[in-house]
Amino acid sequence: MKNVSIGIASFAHIHASSYLNVLKCMDNVNIAGFCDLDEGRAERIRNEFNLPFFADYDALARSDADVILVTNENVRHVDAAIAALENGKDVIVEKPIATRLDDAQRMIDVARDSGRKLFQCYPCRFHPSARKAKDLIASGDAGDIQGITATNHGCMPDHENQETAWFSTKELAGGGAVMDHATHSADLIFWFTDWIPVSVFGIAKRLFHGDIDCDDAGMVLMNFENGFAASIDPSWSRPVSFPTWGDLTMIIYGTKMTITIDMFNQNLDVYSNSSKKIATWQSFGSDADKQMLESYISAIANDTEPPVTGTDGYKALKVALKAYESNDKGTFVIW
Amino acid sequence: MMDPLKIGLFGFGFMGKIHALNVKNNPDAQLTAVFSIEKDRPDIEQIGATFYDDWHEMIAAETFDAVIIATPTFTHAEIGLAAINKGWHVFLEKPMERTLDNCQLLNDAAEKRQVFLGIGHVLRFDDEYLAIKESIVSGTIGNPKMVRCTRHGPPPGWSTWFFDEEKSGTVILDLTIHDLDYICWLAGTAPKRVTAAASSILLGKNNMFGISHVVLDFEVSNGIELGFAEASWGATSSYPFSTSIEVTGTDGMISSQIPGKHPIELFTENDRTAMNLFSKDGYANEIDDFMTSIRSGQQPKVSGTDGILAVKVCLAALESAKSQETIDLEGFA
Question: Taking a C-beta distance cutoff of 8 angstroms, is the pair B218, B227 a contact?
Answer without folding.
Answer: yes
